[in-house]
Amino acid sequence: MPETSSRQDRVVVIGGGLSGLTVAHRIVERAKQARKAVEVVLLEAKDRIGGAIWTNRGDGFTLEGGADSFITNKPWGVDLCRELGLEDQLISPDAQHRRSFVVRQGRLVPVPEGFVLMAPNRLGPILTTPILSVRGKLRMLMDLILPRRDRDEQGDESLASFVKRRLGREALERLVQPLVGGIYTADPNELSLRATLPQFIAMENEHRSLILGALRQARAARSTERFASGARYGLFVTLADGMDTLPRTLAAALPDGTIRTSTPVRRIHRPDSISPWRVELLSGLPIEASAVVLATEAHASARLVDGFDSDLALQLRSIPYASSVIVNVAYRRDQVAHPLDGFGAVVPAIEGRSILAVSFLSVKFPGRAPAGKVLLRVFVGGATQPDLYECDDTRIGQIVRQELGDLLGTFGDPLFMQVGRHPRAMPQYTLGHIDRVGAIRERLSRHPRLIMTGNAFDGVGIPDCIRGAKAAADSAFNALADPAATAAA
Fold first, then answer.
1. CA nearest to 328, candidates 261, 380, 376, 388
2. Using CA atoms, how far apart are residues 365 and 385, in angstroms rounded to an integer?
3. Contact in structure between 368 and 362 (CB atoms under 8 Å)
């Protein structure tokens, strides 16, 4: 017999990462406000919650296995921390070394000041940077006179095509690809600009030139800041005790018994549009639910729905994913020759190296390592180097030590090294992504009270996931009052 609930509505959330936890928390809070009896059950296949966010602590080190911070110009992350009473724990990166590096011919060269992803808001640093050749700088400056793209031709365009058209190939290969690659671990030739960085399309449409647009926006931002009040953060923030504070606090705010870890789901199905959803587990009684929210990777959701809608499953599987490795490695400070006077370095694919980036975590956020020690995070794999993910931990360790020796002058045995793997965890927003998501949502609308959310749809960052999860929770909660409701967040 299935596990039923005759006295109240039940929402089953599948996936205990940040998205799933946010969904559960939002529904619980809305039910309290509406004085409505709603039971929320969150099912997580692993033995822990948090998904791609996990933090380890020991011997004075704070190790992040996933995101080490989140962006603040999208407000949903900071807003959720405020709701949970965590605002006083938000900290910004150390202002002393607020810059990053790009590797050029094996050396770490500072990213030109004011260069944000693909648009410089200061010309001086671009003109003097050794990252670009004289020819590359002149080609970038042509952006000032090039026309905007014809509106009649504005279909989906790859990031690589856009940057080469506006700023030139050298700017793409030496600056934009490594900077954007650090966010999406993606091939810029396949990455949809419309799905990932639409603000630059808007910048071209409004200002014609990216450089002119960036200069004007920087000027407007400086004017606004003069009159700003309230809490002020840098572009990125983290939580003082580690990023897993956020999922742990969300979990602690839920009623006892809401979360069930080590509970993988076999499939979901529904006999007809008026029957409850039935969530079948790999072990244990099935669970009946008034509504189901899938907060898993698209390929995992595809497996769960394949039995009743193979077309929806096929559409979900059309979203490609990349796997990556994050290696936390610690050294004594005297084992690192580089001054570490920045937050980290990104590595252009054209350099032919075996890492994507290295973050100087204990410089970025002091207190992440004891005095006299250095904590680094190294990124390996992604869509551009998928074969490296298949290396075993021993080989990954050899790669990391070799690359850090070449780039930072590290020597001797590290104090420790911790390898964390993220298999098929980063969705790739390739060309046509927005249309794919639209087709998924249209198909999903045929299944009342089945909602999906997560980083596969409207953004891969923490604030984007929070925004999508809250929308999914609202869809599920509102659908409880409307038997005919069909909503996809």
1. 376
2. 28
3. yes
Query: What three-state secondary structure class fits 359?
Result: strand
Q: Record the tokens describing residue 320, joined without a space.
A: 């490609």
Run of H or E residues at 413: none
pLDDT digit string, tens, across residues 149-194: 886 666 899 999 999 999 999 999 999 999 987 788 889 999 999 9
> How far apart, in whole angstroms, are the C-alpha atoms of residue 148 and residue 133?
25
Point out which residues pair with 380 in neighbouring strands.
325
* Cα separation values, 253 from 22, 201, 236, 363, Å: 11, 40, 25, 32
pLDDT tens figures, 325-343: 999 999 999 999 999 999 9
pTM over 0.90? The answer is yes
Q: What mean pLDDT do residues 271-290 have?
A: 93
**Model confidence over 341-352: pLDDT tens digits?**
999 999 999 999
Do residues 399 and 100 make contact, with C-beta atoms less than 8 angstroms apart? no
How many residues in total does the chain contain?
Answer: 489
Q: What is the mean pLDDT of the chain?
A: 93
The fraction of the chain above a pLDDT of 70, given in percent, is 94
Confirm if 184 and 426 have CB atoms less than 8 A apart: yes
**Selected residue with higher pLDDT from 234 and 53:** 53
Instruction: From residue 267, give the alpha-carbon distance in Å to each of 27, 28, 293, 374, 486.
Output: 23, 24, 13, 45, 20
Helix (H), strand (E), coil (C) string for 49-105? CECCCCEEEECCEEEECCCCCEECCCCHHHHHHHHCCCHHHEECCCHHHCCCEEEEC
Distance CA 375, CA 3 (A): 47
Q: Residue 377 phi/psi, 5° resolution?
A: -120, 125
| Residue 33 neighbours by CB under 8 Å, 6+ apart | none
Torsion of CA 238, 358, 185, 196, to 10 degrees: 50
Q: Which residues of 237-255 are buried (b: 16+ CB within 10 A; e: fewer)?
A: bbbeebbbbbbbbbbebbe
Asked whether the beta carbons of 365 and 93 are under 8 A apart, the reply is yes
- Give dist(CA 394, CA 180) in Å, integer: 28
Minimum mean pLDDT among 116-125, 228-237, 416-425: which range?
228-237
Say how many C-beta atoms besides its own lie within 10 A of residue 326's C-beta: 22
Q: How many CB atoms lie within 10 A of CB 82?
A: 14
Q: Mean pLDDT across the stretch 269-280? A: 91
Both tokens of residue 380? 């390996």
Residue whose C-alpha is closest to residue 358's, from 342, 350, 346, 367: 346
The letter for the amino acid at 182 is G
